[in-house]
Design goal:
Elements (H helix, E strand, L loop, with lengths): L4 E5 L13 H15 L3 E7 L7 E4 L11 H18 L6 E4 L3 H10 L4 E4 L6 H10 L4 E4 L2 H4 L9 E2 L18 E5 L8 H11 L2 E5 L6 H11 L8 E4 L4 H10 L2 E4 L9 H8 L4 E4 L4 H4 L6 E4 L2 H7 L8 H12 L1 H15 L13 H13 L2
Parallel strand pairs: 1-2, 1-4, 2-3, 4-5, 5-6, 6-7, 8-9, 8-11, 9-10, 11-12, 12-13
Helix pairs in contact: 1-13, 2-3, 6-11
């Protein structure tokens, strides 16, 4: 095995690993650990509060600028710092960017190594226009086949499903009579559907997740979610992490994912299934790629289907559910998939012409070497 030097660029907002919210940062942390475990050199560029071996390029105070006019200038500043840091890192085989936009442009402009960018969200028209403009400079990876439907014309080089931290999760056959909905609270996640499904099923519901910090989400919570929260039949936990999260996931009878949008992945669904807890999800977005029908959960079309699936969850073997999921979505599987893609991108050294060949042959060899870049 050839040891590679991979530079992983995390977003500037949350530490790696996150201390609460931060799905991308969790995936980045798992990827870095798995790559190092496979014997590769990894340099992580990230925000303050990240693990000690990270190169910190963004202070913790920047987090307060998310969603404000200052956000774009912070992104540009981070991109400039990333570009400077890359110049000082010596030989780099691959730059793996998880930011996009300004940082993606900066890593490509540095022209120090091939740049792979993982697209972590949906792809509205404005994003599509940007990615199209970068298609000759960067190499794009999707986190699900479903995500590609938002931009099928982009020359994707592969799909790599996100991993979950299987070591932090527990598996138990001792289920308790409650349903869990683990997601930020906003219209896209459909908590009002989970409330109705739980009520009609006669089950207690735990809503775990913060209210998204936008007016639309606050209004949604006030009108359709908060009135149902009574601390008994419907419980709300604003931020859950660590051992508390692992316990909630492993002891739930099922996790409800009443998606109201084409979600490109779904870490909470995978975490639940890796904990031996079946998922009942709307059959949209990436859910059909993640859920193995009858083995790790059930796909439904509406709230009626969700209610009908609740009693069927007792047929799911928790141990088999966890085994299948951990094999598919463990960090080593994710790292192996990315390593295969890295190898297709790494610039090959130019072929040096022998003294017996003429100048024309030497020039051709140099051009061939550039063509491999």
């Amino acid at each position: 095995m050839t040891q590679r030097h991979v530079v992983v660029v995390a977003p500037p907002w949350y530490p790696v690993p996150p201390d609460g919210y931060g799905g991308i940062e969790l995936v980045v942390a798992l990827l870095c650990d798995a790559l190092r475990g496979a014997g590769h050199q990894v340099t992580l560029l990230a925000a303050e509060g990240s693990r000690p071996d990270a190169m910190v390029l963004a202070p913790r105070s920047w987090r307060g600028d998310l969603g404000r006019p200052e956000e774009r200038l912070r992104e540009l500043t981070y991109a400039a710092r990333v570009a400077d840091a890359l110049e000082d890192l010596g030989r780099i085989d691959v730059i793996h960017d998880h930011c996009g936009f300004a940082t993606l442009m900066a890593t490509c402009a540095a022209d120090l190594a091939p740049v792979l960018h993982t697209v972590h969200g949906d792809i509205p028209e404005t994003y599509s226009a940007f990615y199209s403009s970068m298609a000759r400079r960067a190499h794009f990876v999707s986190i699900s086949v479903a995500q590609r439907r938002g931009m099928p014309e982009l020359p994707w080089i592969g799909t790599v499903h996100n991993a979950v931290d299987v070591d932090s999760l527990r598996v138990t056959a001792s289920k308790e009579p409650y349903l869990l909905c683990l997601a930020r609270i906003c219209p896209d996640k459909g908590q009002q559907v989970a409330i109705e499904a739980a009520r009609r099923s006669g089950m207690r519901l735990v809503l775990a997740g913060k209210v998204e910090d936008i007016p639309e989400a606050a209004d949604y919570f006030d009108r359709l979610v908060a009135p149902a929260i009574d601390g008994d039949r419907v419980v709300h936990i604003a931020n859950v992490a660590g051992a508390e999260k692992a316990r909630l996931l492993s002891h739930a009878s099922a996790l409800l994912a009443p998606l109201q949008w084409e979600e490109p992945f779904g870490l909470a669904m995978v975490e639940a299934m890796a904990s031996g807890t079946p998922v009942i999800a709307m059959a949209r977005g990436a859910a059909p790629e993640l859920v193995t029908e009858g083995v790790t959960g059930f796909l439904v079309d509406d709230v009626d289907g969700m209610v009908a699936a609740v009693p069927r969850t007792t047929q799911v073997d928790p141990w088999r559910c966890a085994e299948v999921t951990r094999t598919r979505f463990g960090p080593d599987a994710m790292a192996a998939a990315y390593l295969r893609l890295y190898e297709t991108l790494i610039w090959k050294p130019p072929v040096v012409a022998s003294p017996a060949h003429g100048a024309d042959d030497a020039e051709a060899a140099v051009l061939a070497g550039r063509g491999n870049r």
